[in-house]
């Protein structure tokens, strides 16, 4: 179970308040009348892809829209509930990552078309929820989004298809070029990581993840890593058995901070590639992922003979 599955009492209270507002009709956001498909995405990584495919035909509201917000600790607001009540299309990650959105959709009773990413990928609760870090999963979801938007606006189906193909082949062209370079030149290189967010990407890139899986899950869940797992990853840093360390800057508990500090004093220094769970506010999904992978490639090139 991921840390985000755990429901705190304050979150439950917040959901109940939002549901009560909806039931009472106490909306604070005026209904839209643009004629566009009103979209609510739990996370901007998915909302950005919907925007890329939908273009001017969609109006996207992203609930978690900034890397300064910890997705694991997010508590929805009445404004979020209002947006969902007006939506035609709702995109949630699923897999326990944003279960609060499922509750809000049920409370809204809006009849919106809902895409649960985990369900569309035929995954079960307990699977790694960070599916936007799997390039093959992203491609699959672009096709799902295209089909959903076409269902909502059949007359624009050809346009949605054109934009989806453009996203996969043009917007992500640099990303895919970097990805192929790493697969060809960096296969098998050992890297450390701060949490399970990176697992799917590293598998795709054919890089060896030296950090124990239990440690990665523990950090994602907000738990305490075992002494054994800490000793394994710390030893790999001190002996420079890893060539890089990937850090999720949105989730830096003390154990991760200590590992970053160790990497910074290793001999020679271990490059730290900083990545985020959510795109920066002024970057699209494609720009965000391309920038991060370019930085990873640059760090790997410095480590290769």
Walkthrough of the structure:
- It is a single chain.
- With 305 residues, this protein is α/β, with parallel strands linked by helices.
- The protein folds into 2 domains: 3-171, Rossmann fold (3-Layer(aba) Sandwich), CATH 3.40.50; 181-303, 3-Layer(aba) Sandwich (Rossmann fold), CATH 3.40.50.
- 51% of the residues lie in helices and 12% in strands.
- It is built from 13 helices and 8 strands.
- A 4-stranded parallel beta sheet has the order 2-1-3-4, with helices on both faces. A 4-stranded parallel beta sheet has the order 6-5-7-8, with helices on both faces.
- Strand 5, helix 9 (199-205) and strand 6 (208-209) form a beta-alpha-beta unit.
- Helix 2 packs across helix 6 and helix 2 packs across helix 7.
- The longest helix has 19 residues, at 285-303.
């Amino acid at each position: 179970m991921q840390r985000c599955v755990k429901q705190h009492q304050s979150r439950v209270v917040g959901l109940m308040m939002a549901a009560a507002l909806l039931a009472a009709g106490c909306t604070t956001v005026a209904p839209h009348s643009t004629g566009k498909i009103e979209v609510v995405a739990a996370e901007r990584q998915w909302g950005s892809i919907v925007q890329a495919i939908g273009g001017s035909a969609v109006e996207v509201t992203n609930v978690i829209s900034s890397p300064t917000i910890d997705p694991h600790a997010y508590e929805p607001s009445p404004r979020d509930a209002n947006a969902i009540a007006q939506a035609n299309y709702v995109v949630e990650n699923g897999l326990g990552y944003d279960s609060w959105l499922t509750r809000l959709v049920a409370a809204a009773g809006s009849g919106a078309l809902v895409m649960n990413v985990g369900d569309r990928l035929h995954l079960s609760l307990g699977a790694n929820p960070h599916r936007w870090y799997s390039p093959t999963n992203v491609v699959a979801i672009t096709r799902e989004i295209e089909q959903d938007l076409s269902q909502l606006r059949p007359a624009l189906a050809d346009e949605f298809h054109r934009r989806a193909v453009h996203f996969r082949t043009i917007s992500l062209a640099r990303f895919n070029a970097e990805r192929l370079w790493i697969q060809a030149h960096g296969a098998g290189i050992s890297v450390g990581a701060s949490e399970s967010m990176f697992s799917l990407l590293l598998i795709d890139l054919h890089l060896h993840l030296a950090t124990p899986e239990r440690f990665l899950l523990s950090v994602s869940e907000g738990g305490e890593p075992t002494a054994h797992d800490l000793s394994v990853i710390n030893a790999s840093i001190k002996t420079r058995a890893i060539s890089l360390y990937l850090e999720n800057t949105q989730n830096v508990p003390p154990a991760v901070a200590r590992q970053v500090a160790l990497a910074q004093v290793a001999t020679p220094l271990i490059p730290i590639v900083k990545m985020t769970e959510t795109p920066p506010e002024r970057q699209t999904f494609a720009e965000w992922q391309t920038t991060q992978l370019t930085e990873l490639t640059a760090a790997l090139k410095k480590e290769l003979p």
